[in-house]
């Protein structure tokens, strides 16, 4: 599969994270700088959005880490859910970040392409295909159908189903913030479109 059947509708808005009314504490500026250094310039821009409201910064990071990378789902399935959410929410930032993470945890380039263009592809395992079905359901109706829940319950514990639902919601919420504030890709990624 060399051509994607769908193209992303990346939201390209001006970078609003440097609004002069935003006051970041020295601690938050230091944590952003530390993340930039530790990730070799590949993952810190999202922190500029989360730090706009200092009360949300640490609780969000702690919650996010409980879902990824410390969740109960298989890491490849977690990344598949995040990638599908990023694709459907038009978040170029999330897609770029998690495309690289997905490769690191074992997703092939073909599987990642299928997550975007053909989420029911045989390139993806049965459980991954089932999990990917939940993303549009949650984004459209904010609930899983009875059939989808029952299908998931054949493979996952209730706590894993909850984690999958929360993961999609969390990354849809983050996509909304990243898109609204026009967070650019880090320079380390170059002009990846």
Describe this protein's structure.
61% of the residues lie in helices and 0% in strands. With 193 residues, it is mainly alpha-helical. The chain has a domain at 75-180: Up-down Bundle (AhpD-like). Helix 4 runs antiparallel to helix 5 (92-104) and helix 4 (75-89) packs parallel to helix 7. The protein is globular and about 50 Å long. 30% of the residues are buried. The model is unreliable at 1-5 (pLDDT under 50).
Helix-strand blueprint:
Elements: H1 26-38, H2 45-50, H3 54-67, H4 75-89, H5 92-104, H6 109-117, H7 126-141, H8 146-153, H9 158-180
Helix pairs in contact: 4-5, 4-7, 4-9, 7-9
Corresponding CATH superfamily of the domain at 75-180? AhpD-like
Q: Which architecture of the domain at 75-180 per CATH?
A: Up-down Bundle
Share in β-strands: under 5%
> What overall form do the CA principal axes indicate?
globular
Mean pLDDT: 91
* CATH fold-level topology of the domain at 75-180: AhpD-like
Helical content stands at 55-70%
Strands, count: 0
Summarize the structure.
By secondary structure, the protein is mainly α. 61% of the residues lie in helices and 0% in strands. The model is unreliable at 1-5 (pLDDT under 50).
């Amino acid at each position: 599969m060399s051509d994607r059947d769908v193209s992303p509708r990346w939201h390209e808005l001006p970078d609003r994270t440097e609004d002069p009314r935003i006051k970041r504490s020295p601690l938050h500026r230091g944590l952003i700088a530390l993340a930039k250094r530790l990730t070799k310039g590949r993952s810190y821009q999202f922190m500029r959005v989360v730090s706009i409201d200092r009360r949300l910064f640490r609780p969000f990071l702690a919650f996010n880490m409980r879902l990824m990378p410390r969740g109960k789902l298989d890491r490849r399935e977690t990344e598949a859910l995040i990638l599908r959410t990023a694709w459907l929410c038009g978040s170029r930032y999330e897609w770029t970040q998690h495309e690289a993470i997905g490769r690191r945890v074992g997703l092939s380039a073909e599987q990642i392409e299928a997550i975007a263009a053909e989420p029911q592809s045989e390139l993806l395992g049965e459980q991954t295909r089932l999990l990917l079905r939940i993303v549009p359901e949650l984004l459209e109706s904010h609930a899983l159908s009875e059939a989808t829940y029952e299908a998931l319950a054949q493979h996952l514990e209730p706590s894993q189903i909850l984690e999958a639902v929360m993961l999609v919601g969390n990354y849809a919420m983050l996509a909304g913030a990243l898109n609204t504030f026009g967070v650019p890709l880090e320079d380390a990624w170059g002009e990846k479109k």
